[in-house]
């Protein structure tokens, strides 16, 4: 089979303006069955892509600052959480639905910088990694030799 080249191209408009992504299920949410996936019906995040240019620039700057401040690469978890949370609120997360609290930038900025909200940050970054991707398409061979 042959792959359609266009199906490998990213949707730059969605990457830059955002898209609703549903995580559908997530592992590790049930301590009694840590390897089981838990369904998350109705949960969705409006996010830009992790390829969004202002995000990639800000992320690179943050990584360079971390190298200066922590040359041994031992970044404290609370510092890592703060940086990831700030970057996600400033550049990636535009909204959510399916949570018991309505989205606001201020509230998101408060919870996403907290170390204990690593699952939420993980979901947002996973969703942001999906934005703009297309399903690969194949071309059937018209003739056979």
In short:
Helix content is 41%, strand content 15%. With 145 residues, it is α+β, with helices and mostly antiparallel strands. The two termini are 14 Å apart.
List segments where confidence is low: pLDDT < 50 over at least 5 consecutive residues: none
Structural category is alpha+beta
The helix tally amounts to 5
Biggest sheet record: 3 strands, antiparallel
Count every beta strand, where a strand is a DSSP E run of 2 or more residues.
Answer: 7
What do the pLDDT scores average to?
94
Shape: globular
- The fraction of residues assigned to DSSP E strands is 15-25%
Structural description of this entry:
With 145 residues, the chain is α+β, with helices and mostly antiparallel strands. It has one domain (2-133). The protein has 5 helices and 7 strands; from the N terminus they run βαββββααβααβ. The protein has helices spanning 12-17, 53-69, 77-92, 105-111, 118-130; strands at 2-3, 19-21, 25-27, 37-39, 44-47, 93-97, 138-139. The strands form 3 sheets. Strands 2-5-6 form a 3-stranded antiparallel β-sheet. Strands 1-7 form a two-stranded antiparallel ribbon. Helix 2 (53-69) packs antiparallel against helix 3 and helix 3 crosses helix 5 (118-130).
């Amino acid at each position: 089979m042959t792959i359609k080249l266009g199906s490998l191209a990213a949707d730059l408009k969605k990457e830059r303006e955002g898209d609703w992504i549903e995580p559908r299920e997530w592992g590790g949410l049930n301590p009694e069955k840590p390897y089981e996936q838990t369904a998350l019906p109705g949960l969705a995040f409006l996010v830009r892509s992790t390829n969004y240019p202002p995000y990639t620039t800000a992320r690179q700057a943050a990584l360079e600052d971390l190298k200066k401040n922590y040359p041994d690469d031992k970044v404290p978890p609370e510092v890592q959480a703060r940086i990831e949370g700030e970057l996600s609120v400033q550049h990636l997360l535009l909204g959510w639905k399916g949570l018991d609290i309505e989205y606001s930038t201020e509230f998101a900025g408060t919870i996403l910088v907290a170390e204990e909200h690593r699952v939420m940050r993980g979901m947002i970054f996973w969703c942001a990694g999906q934005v703009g991707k297309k399903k690969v398409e194949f071309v059937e061979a018209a003739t056979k030799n």
